[in-house]
Write a structure and sequence with these properties.
By secondary structure, the chain is mostly helical. It has five helices and no strands. The longest helix is centred in the C-terminal third of the chain and has 34 residues. The mean pLDDT is about 75.
Length: about 120
């Protein structure tokens, strides 16, 4: 079962050691029971991993001196002072992200994979 496989890769320990769920609850979740709790637990793990990824990306971004092209700053300025993104900003923001930020993100992913492989050697 899919849940059991995830449990073998440390998910079980992560959920129980974080004290979000008691060990018997985690066992039930990974056995396919308590579906909604399992979904919530996986969502929390996903959000934590995304936050770690973004934090590491921004640190790498700063270390690589990409700040000179001001892409992140321009994206931040678009959101500051807005509770939601006004419709007239969505087009230019999408272009800004696709043309500037996504290539830098792809570069980071390539760099990260390379450094992970060199750390495993």
């Amino acid at each position: 079962m899919y849940w059991t496989t995830l449990g073998q890769f440390g998910l079980k320990d992560m959920l129980a050691d974080s004290e979000m769920y008691a060990p018997p609850t985690v066992e039930s979740m990974l056995a396919g029971k308590k579906f909604y709790r399992a979904t919530r637990g996986l969502t929390l793990v996903y959000e934590a991993l995304v936050q770690i990824f973004i934090t590491n990306f921004l640190k790498w971004f700063e270390d690589q001196r990409h700040l000179e092209n001001r892409v992140i700053s321009d994206v931040e300025k678009t959101f500051i002072g807005h509770d939601s993104v006004p419709p007239e900003i969505i087009g230019p923001l999408t272009s800004l992200i696709e043309e500037n930020l996504l290539p830098i993100l792809a570069e980071y992913i390539t760099w990260d994979r390379h450094s992970a492989k060199s750390m495993m050697k």
